[in-house]
Amino acid sequence: MQSIHTDQAPAAIGPYSQAQRVGGFVFVSGQIPVDPASGAIPAGVEAQAEQVFRNLAAILRAAGTDISRTVKTTLFIQNMTDFAAVNAIYARHFSEPYPARSCVEVAKLPKDVLLECEAIAAMGE
Questions:
Q1: Is residue 117 among the annotated active site residues?
Q2: Which of 23, 30, 52, 76 has the greatest number of beta carbons closer than 10 A?
Q3: Which residue segment(s) compose the domain that 17 sits in?
């Protein structure tokens, strides 16, 4: 098991790793839309979704893989009425064959953000 850390994504805000590389996979902790350089959280669900997927991609690069090798994601959104907007941003960051995915509405997320995404990605073959 190898712990993954990059300054190109927000630091963990608790006792967990940004990701763990185990065997041929990388397990990425839930990413929220915090800009790693400024600590700012963008306004609006679209801008927050963009930041979440940039953070996710940065961690995967640090692990030695990339977002195109993602096999499973779980999206947590604060309001299911944002599903279509989040889906449109998601489709810009992932391509076919799309990862398996779950999406659930939650009552509250860290720092009162509007969404969070965790992922599992494969390493290169």
A1: no
A2: 52
A3: 2-122
| Domains: count for the chain | 1
Q: Which of 1, 9, 58 is nearest to 25 (CA)?
A: 1
From the list 47, 71, 103, 109, the catalytic residue is 103
Asked whether the beta carbons of 54 and 37 are under 8 A apart, the reply is: no
- Is residue 125 predicted with pLDDT exceeding 70? no
Q: Give per-residue pLDDT as tens, 12-27.
A: 888 999 999 999 999 9
Chain segment 15-65, per-residue pLDDT in tens: 999 999 999 999 999 999 999 999 999 999 999 999 999 999 999 999 999
Between strands 25-31 and 2-4, the pairing is unpaired
- C-alpha 107/C-alpha 97 separation (Å) is 31
| Pairwise CA distance, residues 122 & 124, whole Å | 7
Q: CATH number of the domain that 82 lies in?
A: 3.30.1330.40
